[in-house]
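Reopening this ticket.

The earlier resolution said the output was attached, but the attachment link was broken on my side. Pasting everything inline this time so it's all in one place.
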Amino acid sequence: MGQAHHITRTTEDVIDRFNRAFRERDVTLLEDIIAPDCVMESIQPAPDGTRYEGYDASFDSWKALIDDETSHFEVEDVHTGDSWALIRWRYVWGSGSDESVRGVNVMQVVDGKIVEAAGYSKTAPTVAALEG
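Inline output:
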C-alpha cells in the first residue's frame, strides 16, 4: 500500500476554504479544517454571544448558517498571518440596506485546523430578522 500523505495547510489555505464553504454553501469544505477542541463564539445573543466548544458544536453552528438560504455572508477583506486571521464580512438577511450588518471574525489556525473563532459585529440583527 502507498504511504499516507500528510497535507499541510497554511492559515491562508484554511481561511480560504472556510470562506468558500459559506460562498458555495458547501458544508463539506469544513469537515477537515475544524480542530477537535475548536472553540467558537458567535455574535448572538448580545453582549457575549454563544460559546460552542468542540468539533461537533462548532461544525453544527457553522452548518446552520450555511444551510440558511434566507441569508448569506459577503467577505469584504481577509488578513492572514502565521496562525491568526481576520475576516471582515457583511451578513445579509434581506434586500434593504437595513437588513445587513458588518462584522469581523478573529480566527486562530494551528496545524491546518481552526482552533478558535470569535465573531463580532457592529450591531446585531434582531431575533425576528434571523427567524425570517
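Reporter confirms the inline version is readable. The chain has one domain: 11-131. Strands lie at 34-41, 51-53, 72-80, 84-92, 100-110, 113-121.
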